[in-house]
Amino acid sequence: MNKLKERWNITSNFQFFIIILVFAITGSTSAYIAKPILSSIGITKESVSLWLYYPLYIIVILPFYKILLFMFGTLFGQRVFFWNFIKKMLDRMKLGFIHKIFEK
Fold first, then answer.
1. Do 79 and 70 touch, CB atoms closer than 8 A?
2. Beta-carbon count within 10 A of 91 CB
3. DSSP count for the chain of H helices, then E strands
4. What distance in Å separates the CA atoms of residue 85 and residue 70, rounded to the nearest whole number?
5. In the predicted model, is pLDDT for residue 80 greater than 70?
6. Which band of pLDDT confidence, cut at 50, 70 and 90, is reported for residue 56?
7. Using alpha carbons only, what angle is made at residue 18 by residues 14 and 22, rounded to the nearest 5 degrees?
8. CB–CB of 4/77 below 8 Å?
9. Alpha carbon of 13 to those of 1, 68, 88: distances in Å?
């Protein structure tokens, strides 16, 4: 816990708890909404191979995860932390141009 607090530049245990809570809520929510989104476009486990379904599932989750992470982070008062986290995540995925559009 202390290593993460130091790495994320967090000073209090309460802030750490809020950040972990936001990650948990975001992960659960994005996984929950991916299935209906895929089924609405006709992609289900029964209609396509599992080798295709799960990569598509992950591809659908990724953009929603970032949007939800920012939304929940803002609702819980940690907008700056999660905006910086999302920027790093996009940079690592070689999609840094996306956050640069929003910073103009």
1. yes
2. 14
3. 5, 0
4. 9
5. yes
6. confident
7. 170
8. no
9. 9, 23, 23
